[in-house]
Amino acid sequence: MKIYAYPSDSAEKRIFSIINRGVGFRKKDIQYVERILEDVRKGGDEALIKYVNQFDSPRLTADSLAVSPEEFAAAAKRADRRFVGALNRAVHQIESFHRNQVRKSWITTARPGTLLGQIINPVDAAGVYVPGAKGGMTPLVSSVLMGGIPARIAGVPDIVMTTPPRKDGTVDPHLLVAAGKVGIHKVFKAGSAWAVGALAYGTQTIPRVDVIVGPGNIFVTLAKKIVSGTVGIDMIAGPSEILIIGDDSAHEDYIAADLLSQAEHDALASSILLTDSADLAQRVSKAVETQISHLSRKDIARQSLTKFGAIITVPDMAVALSLANRIAPEHLELQVKNPFELMGEIRNAGAVFLGEYTPEPVGDYIAGPNHVLPTAGTARFASALSVDHFIKKTSILHYSREAFERESRDIVSLAEIEGLDAHANSVRVRLKK
């Protein structure tokens, strides 16, 4: 990895290119996905199965889009003890974390004659999208947990899951076991933009939902962007990111491994080290070169580091923290002597990992916080997937006649300033009674 000294023109140029790589879509991709969504909206199961047959499973029929109870039962029998043990730990810890996010309805009568409040309700239905990953050969079990658990804790009564089938028309049993563990009993064999369309508009087999969550490729992301407004979505997610702040106490092999853990995701992924130690910068650069040669996805990792990777030396930790907040990374690791002293200075990050024994994969799988995080600088204003994504907040208001009369003149005054005579009259007409 190339080392940049900050401040400098070269470092600034590199930072600018990383921050502004963004989540862009080509016009032809937008038009392609729009056609798919419209096709599914109008054609329902017939259109959906056409795309499933073309891209995933040639012989799957509309009658077998839904995973059957027999398939769930067979999956449970195939799950080995070690997997079930790990799954149980992950489910328990993710549930425990997300239960702390539950909101309560509230009412206040602080002003005489008024009753004001907010009612919290879950959405009626939620869709969890789980990517296929290498034709279904690498089941993303963690995506099932991170999408399904907060929906269930929010109290969503109808949770459905879609995932691309394997070529033989089956779903990996690990995904089905995970779905059952988190209370998802409606799983459908469909992926990509057509699955998003089915969830957004409904088909004869797949029910329409109110919120769609879950990661995916550019076509899934683009489809979610287009249907946003018709349904709620979690976020428009871009390529994965990690930013590590390290000092002279940090271990170069740990940092190198963590940088590569994100670089292997995608050629557009970003991996950055900020350090006030020139010695650590050199050691990490060498460690990355040593470790990358052993990766099965080394070509992708190398492309990522070449385009959007950087080791940046800074004068001090204050500058490192300022840069980190400017970049607003998805994952931010503090591999320093006293990470808790710096934690309070972080304002913009999807998740913060403290200390050398808290690498990003801990958060991906088992710690408890959600791993669906804002990317591409959106941590400046966005947050991790949570229970909040599955609820609605409805305001309630009640005024007595006395309270109404006490505030009526102010209401009329504000309405008249806005030129809304009917609004003002709605108040005046009651004052005549």
Brief digest:
This protein has 433 residues and is an alpha/beta fold. The chain contains 18 helices and 14 strands.
Structure commentary:
The strands form three sheets. The chain has a six-stranded parallel sheet, with helices on both faces. It has a five-stranded parallel sheet with strand order 6-5-4-7-8, with helices on both faces. It has a three-stranded antiparallel sheet with strand order 2-3-14. It folds into three domains: 3-23 and 238-368, 3-Layer(aba) Sandwich (Rossmann fold), CATH 3.40.50; 27-233, Rossmann fold, CATH 3.40.50; 402-431, no CATH class. The chain is α/β, with parallel strands linked by helices. It is built from 18 helices and 14 strands. It has helices at residues 9-19, 27-43, 45-55, 69-78, 81-99, 133-136, 141-154, 173-181, 192-201, 218-227, 252-263, 278-292, 298-308, 317-327, 339-343, 360-365, 401-417, 421-431, and strands at residues 3-5, 106-108, 114-122, 125-129, 158-163, 186-189, 211-213, 232-233, 241-246, 270-275, 309-313, 331-335, 351-354, 391-399.
